[in-house]
Each structure stands twice: as structure tokens, then as C-alpha cells.
């Protein structure tokens, strides 16, 4: 499966960019004007069931998504590359690392799901499991994970994009996959350089969660916390995100 993608830039440093559970590759729209297209080549992809791959059939799992990412890298002719993954995309990036760690130069996780998945309590799982059918529950998730502090118009925009750009079946299957999959024993001790970017207003994938998971398992991991962001740094702090991400990848 060659994933639909936007190719941005012509630089020697190649980066595959993987979206989160609630949005497709257009989720990275706010950061696109600020990317260093002379130093980097970015491929922003849509996973099966999202965006231009909305009707693409499959099992819609993070393992399948990682295989699709590698197929897309082959199509691009990229032998070596870095990975940037937001939320669910962070879990997909780690599956790519497990499958082909010799090809991955570095990983940047933006509020990324840990390799252990997410052990939801009963109330949270009910909220997330009903979000495929309920716009109100999607809105509640976005509001919760950004600290209940952002404008209603933005929340409505995020929900509208999520509803238009995601397939309900894929959306539900991916939830089970990224939340219940545990590969942390397979990545523990991996020396690939890793940067975890967390928002101070994200109670779900918080800086503390990053410290207990990503920084614990990757010996060459770093953590940076955005004081003015929750779960959606591409929207909340696009300039800071690009600056941190590209400074790390350039090293």
C-alpha cells in the first residue's frame, strides 16, 4: 500500500510525518508554512481510513500502518529517514522502528502514544469507544486533552475535520490497536535518538507519562514540554513545534 502523501521540500534530511487518531495529514497544515524545505524533505501521509485513503480497506492496525509507511518509503526511494508521529502516529512510528530500525535515523513524538499503549480507566474507555459515532464525544476528547481552555470555534473546527476525514470503521479499529498494543519490551534499550514533545495542558499523554515511558525505555531520549500547549501542538504552538523538531532532527 502506497499511502497518499504530500511531499514538501527538497532537502537531504528525509522525514515521514504520521498523523494522529482524530485527524489526517491536513492536521499538520498550521506548521507547513514554517518548515525548512531547503534542509528537509517531508512526506506527510494519510493512513488507511483517513483523508485521501478514506475508503481504503484493511485491518486498520498500527502494525499494518507501519508496513504501509515502509512501503511508501520504498516508493519514495528513501533508504534512510526520520519519523515524526503525533499521538497515534507516535505508536505507528515505533512499529516502524521495530520492523526496520536500521533505516530510522531519529524519531520525534508529538504527544505520542507510548509503546505500551494506553491503559484507559472504565470512564475514559467509554468516552473514547463512543467517539466513532458521537461528534460530542470527539469534541469532549479534544477539549479534555487540551485542558478545557481553547475556543469553542476551534473545537468545532477540529470535530468537523475529524468527521469529514476519517472512516468510522477505521477510526474504531485503530483505537483498539493503539490503545491495547504493547511492544515496549521490543523497543526497550533501542539507541535511536528520540525526542518526546509534550504539552503541559495534556492530562492524558502528559510530561509525566513521557518520563515514565519514552524516557525510561529509550536511552537516547529527550523530553521537551510546551507550556502553552495541550495535545495538539501543531495547532497550539506551531512555531515552537517546528523549531524544536527541526533543531533535533538537524543534530
UniProtKB/TrEMBL annotation:
Task: Pinpoint the AB hydrolase-1 domain residues.
Answer: 15-235
Q: Which InterPro entries match?
A: AB_hydrolase_1 (IPR000073), AB_hydrolase_fold (IPR029058), AB_hydrolase_sf (IPR050266)
Question: What Pfam families does this protein's entry cite?
Answer: Abhydrolase_1
- This chain belongs to the protein called Pimeloyl-ACP methyl ester carboxylesterase
GO MF annotations, alphabetized: catalytic activity
Instruction: Please report the organism this UniProt entry assigns to the protein.
Output: Halosaccharopolyspora lacisalsi
Amino acid at each position: 500500500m502506497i499511502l497518499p502523501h504530500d511531499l514538501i521540500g527538497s532537502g537531504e534530511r528525509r522525514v515521514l510525518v504520521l498523523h494522529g487518531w482524530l485527524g489526517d495529514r491536513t492536521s499538520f497544515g498550521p506548521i507547513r508554512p514554517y518548515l525548512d524545505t531547503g534542509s528537509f524533505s517531508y512526506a506527510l501521509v494519510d493512513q488507511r481510513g483517513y483523508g485521501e485513503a478514506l475508503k481504503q480497506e484493511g485491518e486498520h492496525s498500527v502494525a499494518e500502518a507501519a508496513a504501509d509507511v515502509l512501503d511508501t518509503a520504498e516508493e519514495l526511494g528513501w533508504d534512510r529517514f526520520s519519523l515524526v508521529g503525533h499521538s497515534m502516529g507516535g505508536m505507528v512510528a515505533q512499529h516502524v522502528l521495530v520492523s526496520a530500525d536500521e533505516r530510522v535515523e531519529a524519531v520525534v513524538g508529538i504527544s505520542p502514544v507510548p509503546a505500551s499503549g494506553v491503559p484507559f480507566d472504565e470512564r475514559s474507555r467509554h468516552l473514547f469507544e463512543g467517539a466513532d459515532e458521537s461528534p460530542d464525544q470527539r469534541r469532549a476528547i479534544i477539549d479534555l486533552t487540551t485542558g478545557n481552555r481553547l475556543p469553542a470555534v476551534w473545537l468545532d473546527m477540529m470535530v468537523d475535520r475529524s468527521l469529514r476525514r476519517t472512516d468510522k470503521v477505521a477510526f474504531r479499529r485503530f483505537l483498539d490497536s493503539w490503545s491495547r498494543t504493547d511492544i515496549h519490551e521490543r523497543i526497550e534499550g533501542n539507541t535511536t535518538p528520540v525526542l518526546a514533545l509534550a504539552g503541559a495542558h495534556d492530562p492524558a499523554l502528559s510530561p509525566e507519562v513521557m518520563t515514565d515511558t519514552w524516557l525510561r525505555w529509550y536511552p537516547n531520549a529527550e523530553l521537551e514540554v510546551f507550556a502553552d500547549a495541550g495535545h495538539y501542538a501543531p495547532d497550539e504552538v506551531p512555531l515552537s513545534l517546528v523549531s524544536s523538531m527541526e533543531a533535533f532532527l538537524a543534530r
